[in-house]
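hey so i finally got around to running the thing on that chain from the lab meeting. sorry it took forever, my laptop kept dying and i had to restart like 3 times. anyway pasting the input first so we r on the same page abt which one it is
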Amino acid sequence: MIVDALGYPVDFDLTAGQKADCTQAKPLIEDKTFENLLGDKGYDSNEIVKEVESKGAQAVIPPKSNRKVQREYDQEIYKERNKVERFFSRIKQFRRIATRYDKTGSSYMALLFIAAFYMWTI
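ok and heres what got predicted. didnt touch it at all, straight out
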């Protein structure tokens, strides 16, 4: 999920539950422009950081504790990452999304689009 600075949805991708989130980072950011990319420790990979920096942006991702060379990141900017967490909290107010009634990915994705549209319009 990508949200803007106000916490509104910009783009998202639906994957299997057991698939790592970081595998979808590059496809989601490839055609976007931004100054900072905020992510949790799950997105701390050299590949993602290099991709972000090649776009002239700053990767604000805390390094994993097992990283041999710890990277620096802006902790003040990182506090804004809660906007995506707040988005997930708001989207779970849609009971059908929270309980995952839809059995197919396409119908679930359609409902996510409807919920995202609703959030943009209110």
